[in-house]
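Researcher: Let's try something more involved. This one mixes different molecule types, so please make sure each is placed in the same coordinate frame as the others.
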Amino acid sequence: MSAEQTKDRILHAAQELFAEKGFPATSLREITQRAGVNLAAVNYHFGSKDGLLEALVRHCIEPINAARMRMLEEAEDAAQGAPLPLDRIIRIFLEPALRQLTDCDAKMPCILSRMHHEPHPGLEALMADLLTPIIRRFVAAVQRTLPERTPSEIILHGHFMIGAMLHLLDAQPSMLHTMSEGAIDVNDNDYLLDQLVSFCSAGFQHA
Amino acid sequence: MSAEQTKDRILHAAQELFAEKGFPATSLREITQRAGVNLAAVNYHFGSKDGLLEALVRHCIEPINAARMRMLEEAEDAAQGAPLPLDRIIRIFLEPALRQLTDCDAKMPCILSRMHHEPHPGLEALMADLLTPIIRRFVAAVQRTLPERTPSEIILHGHFMIGAMLHLLDAQPSMLHTMSEGAIDVNDNDYLLDQLVSFCSAGFQHA
DNA sequence: TCCAGTTTAAAACAATCGTTTGAATCAAAC
DNA sequence: GTTTGATTCAAACGATTGTTTTAAACTGGA
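Model: All components are placed in one shared frame. Result:
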């Protein structure tokens, strides 16, 4: 097995287990067993368990943020300087994250929410580093659409939006399913995305 | 020291440490040391570390839910059968939770968010048991105000609202503070509550 | 074929974990 | 003052943790 294959299998197993049980409750033996590699491979390839976590965070977040940046730039280019509709901006922010639910192995709780809520030393700073440029970019876009809003208001509303998104991504679809007595199709990600975009768009524009 | 004092000190120390570092990463030795009690006291009074977690969850959640129930019933009684304004319902749901931020020791990350996101076996079911009656009660109240909404829609919007609330309660005020370059006063809980209520009220009423 | 560098394998490391034990201590009832 | 039950204490238990070590297996270029 090549080195890249080994690293990928470790990352994949770690993503599943961290999402399912959290970082401290997951042992390296569990990860390497599921990945089918030797225990020492984690320390060899990633230096430490903490190193694996940081690599996993980057591995999961960076593609999402890259997609957000690309889609926002394409939309702004196409608009030729005109402000984008608010729901368009919000959808561009939310869709790459929610798409994880569709692309990932079925039923896997999403690692993205776990990364935001895992209280690990240094992780919050790393997440802030990865998210700050994206947030600034989207705040600027919203400000062009809602010029009467202050940046602080937009940031606070974005905070609410991210919270709603993370909670939807979290391992709680069962809660939604049981509470609605099966009426909500938790696998219909297009519907969930539409509803979330509408909810947040209205929230941003509140009187 | 009486037995009740011992249990309270353990609960208090556990609340701080679980909120700060999460459940699996917090050792009983750390808790008992901070509480100033003997290590064996946890197993004596709560049976096990898991038993302590369950007791803490009930200790933290039940007062909030009791306040929600009481305030909603008082408001409905005063309205004499008329539907309550939406923002009134939402404020009654959010305020008892956000008040924790004011009442708790300053700067303490809120345990409420951690409890929702800690992936511990059995904890999700316990949280569902504690929250289900409250949610059903509030869904019924909202449905009287927004009769054109289906229960499923209200539940989904409530899900978004809870996500926004938990993210605000989470240990991320520093993120808000730095992103807004200090313009957002993260200690002004009245302002944060007002904004969250407005955001969610608009979200519930979206076209 | 040989060799240098890389990756894996199994075992052992010290440290820490939750839990249990049994004696010591406490408070109150008789 | 003695007894009884509840509570606290220090110590130790076995198990598991992340990490390191040593040798074996593999890799691709001369």
